[in-house]
Design a protein that fits this description.
The chain is an alpha/beta fold and 324 residues long. The chain contains nine helices and 17 strands. It binds flavin-adenine dinucleotide. Residues 208-210, 234-237, 248-253, 265-267, 269, 271-272, 275, 285-288, 291, 304-306 line the site of flavin-adenine dinucleotide.
Length: 324
């Protein structure tokens, strides 16, 4: 029997998000020699279909309907359900992003499937699909499997290394019929800037109450710019109105897993750690040597961030200049 695994491709401003490739690698682990089928609603999929093939998609279904434009729960869930019915997959993976978190529960309830969310690893053990997910704000991990319906999970970005497979994907345009919506999207008011997506950034420079002001955050932005990273924040900094809540990392904010997390003037409360403790390397800059953040940091600088960061920026610029 050929195993078919369906994944959702996510794109933003016509650019495919890297998590889409990570899902293909996870799907290949489940499908093995079977089929990995990527689904997209993006009309610009031709820009990156080759890449989807390279990373393991055998087929790419593109849902077509004039009403499918920017993300909307009603239209996207209807479109996806129709493709799922057509493909009859043996497992479904979606990104654990704002869109995936919105869509997956709706689809799981429509099909009455078990859903495992915020997965950081996918394994196939003796023909069983086992999903690993963090619990207790990242202090422990549980392994879980779906017992009802098709195994279905949302996968946290930046946790599975996307692997090149070098195959070619077949594109299938699939016309979907959309039924009357129960709600309609009237408008989207954007609040955030168009910078690097925090949840996918390889480097995150994060500021806490120790940054002291919104001007202090400009200093952090300077460091992020020189590193090609994104700026994040603790809730302490957001509550103090130094920056927007869209930057908040933690239990009630975003979860990030960058290669490098630089915590500046952040004490390291458990609720903050819940959003960043899986980062591959953590550097903490804090003037208090007893700050709890140093307990999980790989590298620590005890010092005043207003002195340390300009020195770091200067050194990094010098390095880039020497390399160029
Ligand atoms: P503080 O704890 O005040 O730490 C500031 C740090 O800056 C200190 O360690 C200090 O030594 C250092 N500092 C000061 N000046 C300098 C300087 N010049 N140079 C270097 N270091 C300096 N928090 C989150 O972050 N994310 C969440 O999602 C979140 N969710 C929560 C949910 C709930 C239900 C609750 C109750 C709390 C939540 N919190 C969350 C809040 C959390 O408990 C902490 O209050 C918050 O993380 C503290 O932010 P902070 O580290 O910036 O501030």
């Amino acid at each position: 029997m050929t195993i078919k695994v369906l994944t959702l491709v996510e794109s933003k401003n016509n650019i495919m998000r890297n998590v889409s490739l990570e899902l293909l690698t996870a799907a290949r682990r489940i499908a093995e020699e079977g089929e990995v089928i990527a689904v997209t609603i993006d009309k610009n999929v031709d820009n990156y279909i080759e890449e989807l093939g390279n990373y393991g998609a055998d087929k790419v279904y593109r849902a077509i309907n004039d009403k499918l434009d920017s993300y909307d729960l009603e239209s996207y869930s209807q479109a996806l359900c129709q493709i799922i019915k057509q493909v009859e997959p043996d497992a479904v993976l979606m990104p654990h992003t704002a869109i995936g978190k919105d869509l997956a529960p709706r689809i799981a309830s429509i099909f009455d499937w078990g859903l495992i969310s915020d997965v950081i690893d996918v394994q196939k053990i003796e023909n069983e699909i086992v999903f690993t997910r963090p619990i207790y704000a990242g202090k422990a991990f549980e392994k879980r499997k779906v017992t009802k319906g098709v195994p279905f999970a949302t996968v946290r970005p930046n946790n599975i290394n996307a692997e090149l497979m070098g195959s070619i994907a077949e594109k299938i345009d699939f016309r979907v019929e959309l039924q009357a919506f129960r709600t309609i999207l009237k408008d989207v008011i954007r609040k955030t800037s168009e910078g690097i997506d925090l949840t996918e950034a390889k480097i995150v420079v994060s500021g806490g109450r120790g940054v002291k002001s919104s001007d202090g955050f400009k200093l952090l932005q300077g460091l992020a710019d020189v590193l090609g990273g994104a700026v994040g924040a603790s809730r302490g900094a957001c509550d103090a109105e130094y920056c927007d809540y869209s930057l908040q990392i933690g239990q009630t904010g975003k979860v990030v897993t960058p290669d490098l997390y630089i915590a500046c003037g952040i004490s390291g409360a458990i609720q903050h750690l819940a959003g960043m403790s899986s980062s591959k390397v953590i550097l903490a800059i804090n003037k208090d040597p007893e700050a709890p953040i140093f307990e999980i940091a790989d590298y620590g600088i005890v010092g005043d961030l207003f002195e340390v960061i300009p020195l770091l920026v200067e050194e990094l610029k010098q390095l880039q200049y020497t390399k160029a």
